[in-house]
Design brief:
The chain is an alpha/beta fold. The chain folds into 2 domains: 196 residues, 2-enoyl-CoA Hydratase, Chain A, domain 1 (Alpha-Beta Complex), CATH 3.90.226; 48 residues, Lyase 2-enoyl-coa Hydratase, Chain  A, domain 2 (Orthogonal Bundle). Helices cover 47% and strands 14% of the residues. It contains 11 helices and 8 strands.
Amino acid sequence: MPGIIEADPIQYEVDGHIARIWLNRPHKRNAVSQQLLSELDAARRRAEEDENVRVMVIRGREGTFCSGFDLDELQGDFIGTSRAYQVALKSQRICDDIFRSPTPSVAVIEGYATAGGFEILINCDFAIAEENAKIGDFHMRRALFGGAGPMYRLPRIVGERKAKELMMTGKLLSGREAFEFGLVNGYAPAAELDARVDAFVSDLVDKSPFQMQITKQCVNRALDADTETLMLVERLAVGVTLNSEDAAEGVAAFLDKREPTWAGR
């Protein structure tokens, strides 16, 4: 594929306005290692720095998204409260940077998205799942606690009661069930998944990248501030966007009955 860079355990490629970030440890069901985390962070930064990229698509190689943290690493080097704290801190930072990135992210879920993979999923802006995928927090089944989002991201996505259900039972949801939970934006049979993802992403990449960034940042803050503060943020966002080149182009294109050409500012 054009622009591909072979980089184990992450592969990065650019396809038009889309950065495709592949988790590439299929022999471990794409389990999270410290190296994978570091390279995922580097890929996210690379996408942000490329002015041509408007959307990141994060996906696992060979039919599995990510089965969680590599327990071989956990068992070997990371036992101990202090070291576990540092691992959680790194995972939190890297997942939170995906959540806060100005570039929207779409997780494509096949096979397992459990534990650490589940955490990557819930820090992405959107998710599309294969209908028979296996999706869940899963930590409870191993007497562990997720350190990169279940506590502070999951209740905001699915609500308090459903978050408790997923975290405290360790249950796994199919793609269809995850959609019903409000955990993913859509699902499709395996044979139709690529087309479903392409259709979803196409609805993002043709929009103003500047307006997309402003909207994402505002929505990200929506549950973390009081109403008066959010109303102020909305007013400021209106002022900023109305004075942007993209807003002028959007209005002109509408009046001229043509498709807009976005400058991204």
